[in-house]
Amino acid sequence: MGGKIMNNLGSLPVVFASGKGSILTDVNGKEYVDFVSGIGVNCLGHAHPALVKAIADQAARQIHISNYYNSDRGLEYSGALLEKTGMDRVFFANSGAEANEAAIKIARKFGGEKKTIVTLLKSFHGRTVATLAATGQEKFHNPAFAPYPAGFRHIPANDYGALEGAFDGACALMLECVQGEGGVNLVDPDWAKAAAAAARKAGALVIADEVQTGIGRTGFFLASDFLGIEPDVVTLAKGIAGGVPMGACLARGAAAEVFVAGDHQSTFGGNPLACAAALAVLAEVGKGAFLAAVTEKGEYIRSKVAGWKLPGVASIRGRGLMIGLDTVKPASELQLACLERGLCVSTAGPNILRFLPPLNINTDEIDRGLDILYTVLRS
Ligand SMILES: Cc1ncc(COP(=O)(O)O)c(C=O)c1O
Question: Which of 86, 179, 234, 341 could staple 185 via S-S, CB 3.0–4.6 A?
Fold first, then answer.
């Protein structure tokens, strides 16, 4: 069916046609519980009425105007996002990598002669050449795509000794608050605070890459809130507009004043359609008990899976609805077996399954997914 996508995307054997809540339906009418949510993107699930209405209404009014101009929706959203995060200014992009590119440029210009950006081993920051260089995993530094830009230093997370001299010549620390692609690895808040303090002592900025953790994924609006690091720059994407492509680079204090006219741009960034979707997401995620429910649902999943005491599960960890499961069998085999039975899960390493369900997934949908997972892990 259909045209040929380039070979770099290894598609799983399913063709989806629609979705409602946390349930996806394929072209044959078979249903699947969605524990992937477009890799942490569909934070309100599929066909959420408020999101659909916001997008439809905005599309009928105005989709795009270019960043020569401001839009009413763009100003409304930037005001709401800055108020929510306590940051001073925002640059809108279309993806996480692009938001991180903006953060890298801010840091380098801020640093003057100091050009080095310190990131963590096992981190992931994107697929552009600069964000690949920032990524602290050797497997992403494919020599075929070299040369990569210089000026990135990788240190191990949670290692106090590694902070010694780490910020010599550095303009920034770029911290992935929970390492998603690298295996759902938790960063210890005390260490994160020590790393941020060491960076600041050296005159470097603190950048939180919250592309995956942001917008409530961990049960906090920003994961840097629970780390307690008050970053100078925060990058967001994935869930920010519930599935409409969007990224954002927020900054405060001196970092917010670094860019001047002509320094950086992006044609589609922050167009009114994306901003309308993002406003709808912000309204839902900001509702009373929404974030507390994300924490509760995450704990429910982790305690239920741990309670099975299955020999095929080495451990389960996570924050909110960002969950990693160490498996004995290859994760890709289990992913396929889950899919065949009607559960979408992703992987974050050869033996790590990753769950990033919609943040508003309900208990019935969770239990339906966990029943399938249990059957697969037991067999
Ligand atoms: C922490 C983090 N940063 C950056 C990115 C890149 O985002 P995008 O794929 O939207 O460019 C990702 C994507 O998985 C991510 O998890």
Answer: 179
Question: How many CB atoms lie under 10 A from the CB of residue 225?
Answer: 18
Residue with CA at minimum distance from ligand 1 atom 8:
96
Distance CA 332, CA 346 (A): 8
Is 228:237 a contact under the CB 8 Å cutoff? Answer: no
pTM to 2 decimal places: 0.98
Q: Domain spanning 50-285 has what CATH number?
A: 3.40.640.10
For residue 115, report the distance from its CA to the centre of ligand 1, in Å. 22
Reported as a single tens digit per residue, the pLDDT across 228-268 is 999 999 999 999 999 999 999 999 999 999 999 999 999 99
Residue of 9, 42, 124 to mutate, ligand 1, most atoms within 8 A of C-beta: 124
Q: What is the CATH number of domain 16-48+289-378?
A: 3.90.1150.10
In the predicted structure, residue 106 carries a pLDDT above the cut 90: yes
Tell me the CA–centroid distance for residue 209 and ligand 1, in Å.
9
Q: Is 238 in contact with 41 (CB distance < 8 Å)?
A: yes
